């Protein structure tokens, strides 16, 4: 089972943002139900869930668009509801679809937003435009932008100044494959070079698996899991896949070994769990007994497997 | 204070770059010019048709008061639409989700948007009045209102009354801005906001009409003086040499106090609604 790190055991100084027991209802519909999330310094934190799981609602509470019915959202230890003035300069965010003034060009939109924030030190509008690849055509009005350009501009506005925490809701939606790659690389670079903590929600599980070091799974307004990705796919989650001639006989043979766990035949291949230290021993045993082993690979579950298993159980 | 200045500057910068702002400002000015020009053209044609002529210089006060009144009525309607869209349009475009992420209290947004409206309203009124003076001066002089040597009203009296009429437009504008902003804060739909404002305007106009002469008492006592131009009607009466023109001093007090009180009420509602509401993202 994944190791879950409760908020209480993480030192306060490491926690960049958190939701603590947040409940939020829309009429009779309970969008969030006592949700706890803990985002640590340097995390690229993935928020996963099916449609209607509460991902965007959780981000809206974190960004103070919504008041929680109960519970608290904090950034750097400050309550976002009561201390927004000090929280806001620490944040950059995109949520849902991009929104800009359509009669203005992209550069002007960013310049106005930068000035609105008091022209803080850090990334200028020009630098943000360059970072998201929109610097070559700054004079085009936003109403003429493609969806991809809008998404890039939206990420650009989140990067203005010097945010410590980036909240990105579906950051690669509407982007072409190259744009997706660029945004993923940008997120890694921001974390590695500038130490920015990133929270992102995505339906692209492979994307989350690729760039996130920590994930939370929301389902029907509840948090099912919150764990380090490494912990999800630790040694106890891996299995050995063996391609062998006469797999049926090999299967019968390994069933007799008490140190080989959960053996099964799938798609003509033998799958089982075995300690890493005994893998060579198993290979030698099979070869020694005349089984022709052509491939022996260690596999791990994908985040997609894990996600579907957890949400199905729920 | 710096925070508020940033928000107000943001609003002004946006408004300056918006076509709607320029339409709101320039169309009433254009109507003022056209109104004066057409009015004078019709009067000249009527005079020629009746064969009357006079060597006395024509007083420009009538043309001025007529043109400015028409310009301000249209300007008031446009201004009301503009105010009603100011918050609703941000909701419609979803741009609140971007700007509210910046470190400014929500009340500052209400204050800045109201500040923008007051500045625009002031520019609108001054623009209409300035153009009204300039255009009226083309067709006549700002001289005594007289006929065959008999002076009904002196130029200094007319100037004083004109100034009072212009100044008395300011309180209704203050209430108008607050009313539009309040409606705007209640919805994310510009269509609903403008429809509600048109509805309110028509309703108030109908109420004015149905109350006849009594409207000046009742209207001023419980309604916002949205687009009250009574003083320009009075000014037109002076400019025509009517001896019974003018308004009672009590009405002036009502029209100072009622819009101010209305504006405070509307702004309070706006602040509460805007301060507490959740925004669509």
Describe the structure.
The complex is a heterodimer of chains A (314) and B (281). Chain A has helices at 55-62, 84-87, 106-116, 125-131, 147-158, 177-194, 205-211, 229-232, 247-255, 279-288, 303-313, and strands at residues 15-26, 29-40, 44-49, 70-75, 78-79, 91-94, 165-169, 197-201, 214-219, 222-228, 239-244, 261-266, 269-273, 293-299. Chain A has 314 residues and is of the alpha/beta class. Chain A has 2 domains: 7-232, P-loop containing nucleotide triphosphate hydrolases (Rossmann fold), CATH 3.40.50; 236-313, 2-Layer Sandwich (Alpha-Beta Plaits), CATH 3.30.70. Chain A has a 6-stranded mixed beta sheet, with helices on both faces. In chain A, strand 12 and strand 13 (269-273) form a beta hairpin. The longest helix of chain A has 18 residues, at 177-194. In chain B, a hairpin with a 2-residue loop joins strand 1 and strand 2 (150-153). Chain B starts with a helix and ends in a 5-residue tail after the last helix. Chain B has 12 helices and 2 strands. In chain B, helix 2 packs parallel to helix 6 (106-139), helix 7 runs antiparallel to helix 11 and helix 8 (170-185) crosses helix 9. With 281 residues, chain B is mostly helical. Chain B has one domain (2-43, 56-276). Chain A binds chain B through residues 56, 60, 63-67, 84-89, 91-93, 95-97, 99-104, 108, 112-113, 115-118, 157, and chain B through 2-3, 6-7, 9-10, 13-14, 17-19, 93-95, 97-105, 278-279, 281.
At a glance:
The complex is a heterodimer of chains A (314) and B (281). Chain A has 314 residues and is α/β, with parallel strands linked by helices.
């Amino acid at each position: 089972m994944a190791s879950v790190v409760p908020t209480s055991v993480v030192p306060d100084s490491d926690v960049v943002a958190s939701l603590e027991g947040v409940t939020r209802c829309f009429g009779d519909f309970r969008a969030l139900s006592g949700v706890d999330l803990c985002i640590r310094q340097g995390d690229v934190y993935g928020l996963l869930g099916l449609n209607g799981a509460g991902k965007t609602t959780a981000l809206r509470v974190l960004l103070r668009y919504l008041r929680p019915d109960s519970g608290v959202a904090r950034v750097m230890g400050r309550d976002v509801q009561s201390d927004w003035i000090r929280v806001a300069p620490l944040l950059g965010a995109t949520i849902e679809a991009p929104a800009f003034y359509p009669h203005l060009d992209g550069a002007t939109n960013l310049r106005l937003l930068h000035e609105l924030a008091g022209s803080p030190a850090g990334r200028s509008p020009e630098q943000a435009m360059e970072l998201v690849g929109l610097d070559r055509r700054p004079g085009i009005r936003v109403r003429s932008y493609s969806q991809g350009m809008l998404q890039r501009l939206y990420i650009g506005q989140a990067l203005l100044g010097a945010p410590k925490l980036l909240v990105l809701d579906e950051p690669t939606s509407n982007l072409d494959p190259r744009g997706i790659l660029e945004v993923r690389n940008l997120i890694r670079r921001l974390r590695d070079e500038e130490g920015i903590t990133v929270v992102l929600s995505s339906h692209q599980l492979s994307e989350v698996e690729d760039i996130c070091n920590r994930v939370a799974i929301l389902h029907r307004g509840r948090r099912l899991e919150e764990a380090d990705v490494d912990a999800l796919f630790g040694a106890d989650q891996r299995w050995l896949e063996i391609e062998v001639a006469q797999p049926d006989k090999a299967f019968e043979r390994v069933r007799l070994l008490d140190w080989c766990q959960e053996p099964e035949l799938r798609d003509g291949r033998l799958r089982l769990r075995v300690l890493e230290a005994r893998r060579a021993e198993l290979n030698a045993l099979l070869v020694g007994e005349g089984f022709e082993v052509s491939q022996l690979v260690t596999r791990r579950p994908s985040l997609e497997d894990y996600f579907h298993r957890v949400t199905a159980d729920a | 204070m710096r925070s508020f200045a940033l928000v107000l500057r943001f609003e002004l910068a946006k408004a300056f770059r918006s076509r709607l702002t320029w339409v709101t400002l320039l169309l009433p000015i254009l109507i003022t010019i056209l109104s004066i020009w057409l009015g004078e053209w019709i009067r000249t044609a009527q005079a020629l048709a009746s064969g009357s002529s006079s060597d006395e210089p024509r007083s420009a006060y009538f043309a001025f008061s007529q043109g400015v009144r028409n310009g301000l009525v249209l300007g008031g309607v446009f201004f009301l639409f503009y105010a009603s869209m100011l918050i609703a349009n941000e909701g419609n475009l979803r741009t609140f989700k971007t700007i509210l992420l910046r470190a400014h209290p929500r009340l500052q947004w209400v204050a800045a948007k109201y500040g923008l409206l007051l500045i625009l309203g002031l520019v609108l009124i001054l623009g209409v009045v300035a153009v009204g003076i300039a255009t009226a001066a083309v067709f006549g002089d700002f001289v005594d209102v007289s006929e065959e040597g008999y002076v009904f009203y002196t130029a200094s009296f007319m100037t004083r009354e004109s100034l009072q009429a212009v100044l008395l437009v300011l309180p209704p504008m203050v209430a108008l801005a607050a009313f539009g902003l309040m409606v705007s804060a209640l919805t994310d739909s510009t269509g609903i906001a403008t429809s509600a404002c048109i509805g309110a305007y028509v309703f108030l106009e109908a109420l004015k009409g149905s109350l006849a002469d009594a409207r000046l008492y009742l209207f001023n006592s419980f309604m916002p003086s949205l687009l009250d131009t009574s003083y320009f009607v009075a000014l037109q009466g002076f400019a025509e040499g009517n001896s019974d023109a003018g308004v009672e001093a009590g009405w002036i007090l009502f029209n100072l106090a009622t819009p101010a009180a209305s504006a405070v009420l509307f702004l309070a509602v706006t602040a509460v609604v805007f301060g507490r509401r959740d925004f669509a993202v």
